[in-house]
User: Fold these one by one.
Assistant:
Number 1:
Amino acid sequence: MTNQKKRIAIFGSTGSVGTQTLQVIAAHPDLFEVELLTAHSNDELLVEQALQFNPNAVVISDETRYGKVKQALASTDIKVFAGEKSLEEAAAFDSYDLMVAAIVGFAGLKSVMQAIENGKAIALANKETLVVAGDIVMRRALENRVPIIPVDSEHSAIFQCLVGETRNRIEKVILTASGGPFLGKKPNFLVNVKRDHALQHPNWNMGAKISVDSATLMNKGLEMIEARWLFNLAPSQIQAVIHPQSIIHSMVQFEDGSIKAQMGVPDMKVPIQYALSFPHRIPNDFPRLDFKKISTLTFEDPDTKTFRNLALATEALHKGGNLPCIVNAANEIAVWAFLRNRIGFLDMTEVIEKTAEKLPFISQPTMEEYLESDGEARNYAASLIKL
Ligand code: NAD
Ligand code: MG
């Protein structure tokens, strides 16, 4: 790598991906420096991170917490901004090189778009951005020559398999899925599942929303849509397979039938580090895979009759238009309500299905139409739950 440090802006620094990104940066102070940190409501952690990493600026998007952050950083020269609008403005700052997009949900879309319009490289964890408006996001990235480097472990795996293969046609990509905490369970069990149970993922320690999405298999559906846009694939080229050990992070099958897989212990710091250091690989002391300790690697088809969210997301992948955006919005509302014990595990599917049936289909939406579809789907989903 060059002598100059890469200046990193972490959008969503207090989350699971955000905090792990800071761990990677802390281990390589010679390569990376923190330019900007943003958080929604966890002002205490944001302040702690700011004091440790000394960024140029921080943004707390929940405006009511501005005073606390400002006061806590009063003795420093770190600039403090607040509010949703400031997130977009910060994304347009000149002073950083790479955005780590680690905000969860639709809330991450506008800052990513702003970064793309300003020619910033993006390490993308926020898959919902591509689910909502992947065609427009990727088109603008291409037009602005902005690299979108995946952080999601499956997509990082595919990305790594594709290094050196630019001229070779992909036959299909195979996304692996752990199956989540309820693998093998049936509806009579799932009907009684509660929040705390769903938050216990066997292989990964993640934020609440993605943990629920992993339990319902919606996460894999969102990732199929994410893969479509990231790698410019036809929906029929994308397959999901259950692989409970989470050792193979995903695979690419080429025209000659040859398959490449990327493997390792499940640890998000590996794809995060690769996205920061790409195109280089840099050393670390993360745990290594010991093949003698894994007795078997197993694979099976997902049970889409039980985990119907994956079937709904697959339908959205194939139908396209604003349907993935609608499904994503309804899912965000459903997960929100499930996390507050307002609806049951299986009710989430019903909210998404009814919202997808109700909202008008648009085959080639503009960005404004995506934003409108998101808002309308949220309102309709909320009315179903009587929020
Ligand atoms: P998280 O809930 O742990 O953290 C989310 C971050 O976003 C926090 O910093 C929070 O302050 C911020 N945020 C939340 N709502 C916001 C809003 N309305 N406006 C501005 N900021 C807001 O989430 P996570 O698990 O770190 O996931 C982040 C993204 O990365 C998600 O899109 C997820 O799908 C993706 N991802 C996560 C993992 C993982 O291991 N956690 C793996 C792959 C992909
Ligand atoms: Mg993933």
Number 2:
Amino acid sequence: STATASPPTTTTTTTTTSDDMEALWMPFTPNKLFKSSARPRVLARAKGMHYWTTDGRQILDGTAGLWCTNAGHCPDPIVKAIQDQVATLDYCPSFLFGHPKSFEYANRLVSELLVPDTKLNRVFFTMCGSTSVDTAMKISLAYHVARGDGTRYRFIGRERGYHGVGFGGLSVGGILNNRRAYASCMIPGVDHLKSTYHRDRHAYTRGEPEWGGHLAEELDSLVSLHGASTIAAVILEPVPGSTGVLPPPRGYLRRIREICDAHDILLIFDEVITGFGRLGRGTASEYFDVVPDLITCAKGLTNAMIPAGAVFCKGNIYDALMNTTPDDGSPYIELFHGYTYSCHPVAMAAGLATLDYYRDQDLFDRAARISPYFEEGMHSLKGLPNVVDVRNIGLMGAVELEPYPGSPGRRGHELMERCFEDGVMVRQTGDTIALSPPLIVSEGDIDVIVDTISRNLRKLR
Ligand code: PMP
């Protein structure tokens, strides 16, 4: 249980001072604020549901790191697989060479994670979510070119979408703060669908809202505006996560699929968060029973213990590119794309062990079984001071707060800090607190997370 957890090995406690932190430029962090904090959040160890700080405090992980350590921290079999692999084959070039685990892992993802009827049966390995998004966008363009349809250069993303930080993902993403400084370099030909979230109509819905399926028709308007023959792909998170857990209105994703089908537009689901059990299924595609042409993933692919990402792709897309190969025996490269760390042996070993672990511990079903309890816990926060919405689906949830007048994000940040001081890690995005616990979370853990948020909400100004 939560109360009796202890660190995996004895730790000498240390504290980190602002001098120690000078050289590091911390990503997506208010560096000045963090470095001036009296007790900076610095983590030394992790096991199962918990982190331990350098000064020895135990923290219950309500967010699976950054929505990623779905199997919990440092599971022994995955640790061992990584250790064995790095001592056996540390690295293998992924261009022109292969190693057995990359083939094996791709096969197993296709046969064990993905639903066979979907024909998502080709796997391209990347390094992370951002590189998966870039890869899926490039595959989409290359596919149309290979079919002699090279006028399709436009992409359609969505407001409040997050697709990582590459120029492709930023361009189709819909978060102003992420784009502002780079606005001069957004890729051309991108439109954004409206976000489906509607505060008045959606507040306190559980799972998929009933209202808003018709918003998918906006895609039809964009097709009429630009002409289908200019549109390469639509990219969406089935459930936008980073902008505050926004479950899709019932019927929305299915209608988007229909419109794409009618116009030969590829559909990309960005499942960097929703993949690998977050909704109690292998993918959100399976959960919603809507099949895209490409799925991007990362995070849960290796339980985030080694960086890696992947793009799952329908066989016909791969085949279209293979059919461009001249039959004269020349060494023709079908897709001019790849990374030094694609198919990294240590990542492949971690991935195989992660997939085994999900299966052996029955973690996707477990997530599905505990989701209703999580939902009840989340919605018990309704009515507490400053709470304006609670949303959830699977093991993703969010509590949205009324911002301090004139100081957006501050209330959310203070709640995150207070919860951490009180032993629980939650994720802050603006004035929304998001939760995505590891799939091993217990009812007792959920109680602790919810009680901690509740207690600290009452203390906030
Ligand atoms: N897409 C989605 C939907 C994400 O949530 C994220 C990361 N949270 C990314 C892409 C980017 O992944 P990474 O940070 O691994 O590049």
